[in-house]
Amino acid sequence: MFLFIAKRLINAPIMFLFSTLFAFMIIQAGPGNPAELQAFGNDRYGRQEVQRFIAEFGLDKPVVVQYLEWLGRAVTGNLGRSLESKRTVNETIGIPVTNSLILAASSLVLVFIIATFVGVYSAVYENSWFDRIISMISYIFLGLPSFFLAIIFITLILELGWRGWRILPIGGMTSDNFDSLSSFNQLIDIFWHMIAPMLCVALSQVAIYARLLRSQMIEFLADDFVRTAKAKGLPTRVIFFKHALRNALVPFVAGVGGLLPTLLGGAGLVETVFNWPGITNVMLSALQVKDFFLFTGLVSVSILILIVGNLIADILLAVVDPRIRYQ
Amino acid sequence: MTSLTLPLPETKPRAKSQWRVIWEQFQKQPPAIVALFVLLALYIAAIFAPMLAPYERNETAPVTEGVRYQAPTQVRFVDPETGALERPFVYATTRRVDPNTFELQFLEDRSVKYYVQFFAQRGEPYQLFGFIPMRLRLFSVSAPARIFIMGSDGSGRDIFSRIIYGAQVSLMIGFVAVGISFLIGAILGGLAGFYGGLLDALLMRFTEVIQAIPPFFLLIALSALIPSFLEPEQYFYGVIIMLGLTSWMDLAKSIRGQVLSIREQEFIVSARALGIGDGRIILRHILPNTASYLVILGSITIPGAILAESGLSFIGRGIREPSVSWGSLLSDITTNGIAGVNLHPWALMPGWYILVTIVAWNILGDGLRAAFDPKKRR
Fold first, then answer.
1. Do the Cβ atoms of B268 and B284 come closer than 8 Å?
2. Which class for A244: exposed (0-12), middle (13-18), buried (19 or more C-beta within 10 A)?
3. Where do the structural domains in chain B lie, given as residue ranges?
4. Using an 8 Å Cβ cutoff, are A313 and A44 in contact?
5. Closest-CA distance of chain A to residue B286, Å
6. Which member of B221, B303, B330 has the closest CB to residue A23?
């Protein structure tokens, strides 16, 4: 197991290196060039300024050289400067990345809680009316694009608002009077704004993982060791939770660990609909003006989160299930 | 003593082919059959789009005012004054915003009835299947009345017509994009699985490197590669290629696994012993054996591609005007201000079409999986 984890730990930086290189090349390969986009519609931006701009950011060098220079700075934690605002990428993306992580991490917790409950319940009462209704509902949530679910939520919130039920805000992360609130109330305010987007991000994943857990539970409940446990006269509760659920949770834990990056990406569209100040909006506008370094910074942070997430998932799996033998 | 002779069967029952068994198993699953018919109906509707849609996809009402976000037109069968049953007809409507409550009101002009005409020659000529010139519309009404059976959007365009035209893009994209990702996945996965060794290691590391970029971010990064000087109609192909390029990784891994296990089986060893070349072994012996597996994988990947396209078009990096897809239709809601969406809930209609399509594909996929799985035979 330790060999496996050590291998993974060595593998992770190599993955990071190549996938950021790949992302860097994709972004640079696109049509249009940031210097011209800066000059566009700006009379004071002449030939000279364009030249200076290119030289300032080293845009005339070969892509690989640019990448190596970027990487040299990135390993020290400096992601370069934004071409558009000239501020450092670190300070530009700090808050959006935090906001996106808050949303994704809370959704992850939600997925875990709801999916465990629903999955276990529908496995224990297999083919009951509850199981059937849940299975139908999960088909629907699997078919709903997250952004469409977000639009439906907003429609419902607005409709209820018209009838005098102002239960949830329709967008943003904070209320207008946020600054005047006490820090405890500020937390409550953020949470209040997060409920709807969090549900939109989580629900389709809940459908996937509840189904996974259900089928795992059913498989284990029919297994020999469960029959033995029954024959020994163990109470049903112990059989469910100590025997079946513990085994069924293995792939589930591994999956949930790797889910954070999925949620981070999946939250993207929900963020745009709910106007959540996260990564996606910054990323889209960076793409619009060809802000290479801002975009690369965001992508590499998300790659980092993905690789670390997968690493944690692998380690968790190795810890949870000692049967798994890795070469 | 009675002799017991059993009548021998005249002919031996023929062994059923694999595909026949699968088809019979598939028929035993009512939800999958229903899903298949729903999808067939949607795809046929997309093919006959110009005939089914009463208006062109970008046709705005000539009346300058009063058609933005018009509620679905009420098709009447009963004359409201006499109570007599009639052929279906509509009234011309105008929109008004109530000065006090700001609520939308649609006023019907009850003086003239406009009967719904079936298979009438109306509107712009179009080409059915791309080559048969026609002007026939399944149903239509004469101006100034308009028949918006699902209401109109923020620019006064018929949502139903746009959904039908959007189906051409949204539904087609699933097939073509998945075709591309299968091609890439089969080539890379097949090579890796068949030759193994260093090539396998390199190809699989490459796959993992691309998978380390969150898929949605990879998709929007790639969408920036589509040259902006392309015509909107050509842009469509760019989007398809990008979707194909971002969805082959899981396929390549699965196909590699399949090829790896098939490669070790005896019939491949004997084919090798016969001196058959690699290319022939791959094409004639290995690929056909992965066919059933590929069908299942396809039914899983297609809904994913449709969802990805809808998301990409929704944020404006996918299909562009004047082309329409279900995702780009939904972006009409956000561009016109989401804060009033509850006043015109019919603008959400394209999303329900996405939902039905994806659910149908998922149910069909589950049905196929069960039909292909020998353990689940009934």
1. no
2. buried
3. 59-157, 162-376
4. no
5. 28
6. B221
Which of B209, B214, B362 has its CB closest to that of A261? Answer: B214
Residue of B212, B220, B311 with shortest CB distance to A306: B212
For residues A30-47, give the mean pLDDT: 65
Q: What is the mean pLDDT of residues B55-77?
A: 70
- Contact list in B for residue A295 (CB cut-off 8 A) is 221
Model confidence at B36, pLDDT cuts 50, 70, 90, reads very high
Instruction: Catalogue all structural domains in chain A, each as residue range(s) with its CATH number.
Output: 2-89 (no CATH), 95-320 (1.10.3720.10)
Question: Would the pLDDT of B137 be above 80?
Answer: no
Q: Report residue B90: phi and psi, to 5°.
A: -130, 165
pLDDT at B356: 93
Distance from C-alpha of A139 to C-alpha of B362, rounded to nearest angstrom: 8
Question: Which token pair is A291?
Answer: 């802000």
Inter-residue contact A243 to A226 (CB < 8 Å): yes
Q: Is the pLDDT reported for residue A55 higher than 90?
A: no
Residue A327 pLDDT: 42
> A265, B214 in Cβ contact below 8 A?
yes
DSSP per position, A172-185: -SS-TTGGGS-HHH
Q: Residue B41: pLDDT band by 50, 70, 90 thresholds?
A: very high
In terms of Cβ atoms closer than 10 Å to its own Cβ (0-12, 13-18, 19+), residue A296 is buried
Q: What is the ipTM of this complex?
A: 0.83
Amino acid type, A211: R
Q: How far apart are CA B179 and CA B191, in angstroms?
A: 18
- Where is pLDDT greater, at B204 or B88? B204
Which chain B residue shows the shortest CA-CA distance from A301? B213
Provide the pLDDT for residue A168. 79
- Rounded-to-integer distance, Cα A108 and Cα A102, Å: 10
Q: CB B357 to CB A272 under 8 A?
A: no
- Return the CATH superfamily for domain B162-376: MetI-like (1.10.3720.10)
**DSSP string of B201-250?**
HHHHHHHHHHHTS-HHHHHHHHHTTS-TTS-HHHHHHHHHHHHHHHS-HH
Stated length of chain B: 378
Nearest C-alpha in A relative to B333: A151
pLDDT tens for residues A6-25?
877 888 888 888 888 888 88
Testing the interface with B: which of A132, A151, A306 to mutate, by most B Cβ within 10 A? A151
pLDDT at B83 over 80: no
Instruction: Give the least confident one: A25-39, A256-270, B353-367.
Output: A25-39
Residue of B338, B369, B375 best to disrupt the A interface, most CBs of A under 10 A: B338
